[in-house]
Amino acid sequence: MDIQALVEKNRSYRRFFEDEPIPSELLKKLVELARITPSAANKQPLKYLLSNTAEMNAMIFSTLGWAASLPDWPGPVEGERPPAYIVILGDTRIAKSWSVDPGIVMQTMLLGAVDKGLGGCIFGSVKRGKLTGLLKLPEQFEILYVLALGRPREEVKLEGVGEDGDTRYYRDENHVHHVPKRGINDLIIEA
Questions:
Q1: How far apart are CA 58 and CA 51, in angstroms?
Q2: pLDDT tops 90 at residue 127
Q3: Helix 128-135 vs helix 54-61: angle between axes, to the nearest 10 degrees?
Q4: Which long-range contacts (CB under 8 A, 24 or more apart) does 186-189 make?
Q5: CB of 75 within 8 A of CB of 64?
């Protein structure tokens, strides 16, 4: 798959085939991609907690906010929840701030997931205190983000932003997830 197709297929998926497990080895391969990405000042302060068991997945699921633009949707039902997660942690013994590192590693891991026929979603809406306690994390780790992973159980379509300029995603009556994107001419500024 070329890079354009890979990026177009890398959407925020929120419903998955929960009964299709993701092996630990595949999760480790995604972390290997993150390991070799650029890091600010090459500090490499990020660590990763891998989850692909029902018990740990349930703990993580309970701390996530699923879709800000779909306020009436509490998240996927049982059977459609992610079969795996990667919790991205900042190791405060190495650094106190994370620069662009989380964005680089999350996009890289998601592109790796798409390449393997999977998809995912980045969560910044996390009850971090609760999740830290549930996972019994040592105090040097700060939860930054959570990646949900699995084989997508939904269709996501990109479309242009309407005349009203609204960029909020939405679901239609067939549960197709629509994501408005600004046009290329709206993004490039000429000097």
A1: 10
A2: yes
A3: 160
A4: 186/161
A5: yes
- Domains defined for the chain, CATH in brackets: 3-154 (3.40.109.10), 155-191 (2.20.180.10)
CA gap 68, 15 in Å, rounded: 15
Compute φ and ψ for 42, nearest 5 degrees. 50, 30
Which helix (DSSP H) or strand (DSSP E) does residue 184 occupy? Answer: helix 184-187
Residue given tokens 């700060």 in the structure block: 142
pLDDT at 1 over 80: no
47 Cβ partners below 8 Å, 6+ apart? 88, 89, 90, 91, 141
pLDDT given for residue 73 in this prediction: 85
* CA pair distance 158, 8, nearest whole angstrom: 8
* Torsional sign, CA 144, 150, 156, 158: positive
Q: What's the CA gap between 19 and 80, in Å, rounded?
A: 8
